Amino acid sequence: MYRGKYQTLGGLSLPGGDLRSKNVGNRNLLYFAKRLVALYPNGLPYKIEPLSLTLQERTTIGDQLGDQAMFCACPKADPVTQTLVGYALSNDRRKVKLYEFNTKYVAAEPREEAFAGPMFCDDFGLTEKFAVFFQPPVKLDGGAYGFNKKPLAEACTLDKGGKTKVYLFPRDPAGKRVELEMDPVFVDAVANAYEDREGNIVVDLIYSEDLPWAPGTAAAPAWTRADFSPSGGRALGRLVLPTTGG
């Protein structure tokens, strides 16, 4: 939500047509495997010196993430397997890599899955068997963004006539992915996810019926206009998702 996350005017006006977003490392703090890092959506983690709490350089976690990895700010700890599960979007947002780190911060071979179009998400759900992603139906005015006429926030709109896609990616490489659809919403956060006795996935989430960032210009950060009131256009809901499709 800071200047540079979705609000930077860039595109072809910058050297090389730079379409990247800045990473200010301020969304989440994580202590895992005796390391403290600061996280921000779609960027590399930042090391934090634990005694002084000084923000240090970015980290690729032992070269396991690429130099330009769009890592998530909301990895999930699995208390059963003692692993940390996170994801990184590809630069075009059409693919995702799922990482599972052990207590020494060593990841198993990352799994790659594909989305039906660019993905805009800030969180995901994790259960014993699945990683759960919600893809809102977003329209992007690529010309206006690429030619520096609009920042990313203003170039995106939620397609009210579309459907939010739900992806259930199996954590077991031998498992099968499941795709579902629901009414067009943007999922702001996933509060909880688990599998019930019938094998369905139950997800508690916070969602909006529009995109959460407020339109604006590159000169002013989105949080100066965003509605953070108790209502704020957001709602808490529970979904029960079948793992057999439908």
TrEMBL record:
Matches recorded under InterPro entries: Carotenoid_Oase (IPR004294)
Cofactor: Fe(2+)
GO molecular function, one term: carotenoid dioxygenase activity
Domain of life where this protein originates: Eukaryota
GO biological process: carotene catabolic process
Pfam families per UniProt: RPE65
Entry keyword set: Iron, Metal-binding, Oxidoreductase
PANTHER family linked: BETA-CAROTENE DIOXYGENASE, CAROTENOID 9,10(9',10')-CLEAVAGE DIOXYGENASE 1
Family: Belongs to the carotenoid oxygenase family.
Name of the protein in question: Uncharacterized protein
Lineage: Eukaryota, Sar, Stramenopiles, Ochrophyta, Raphidophyceae
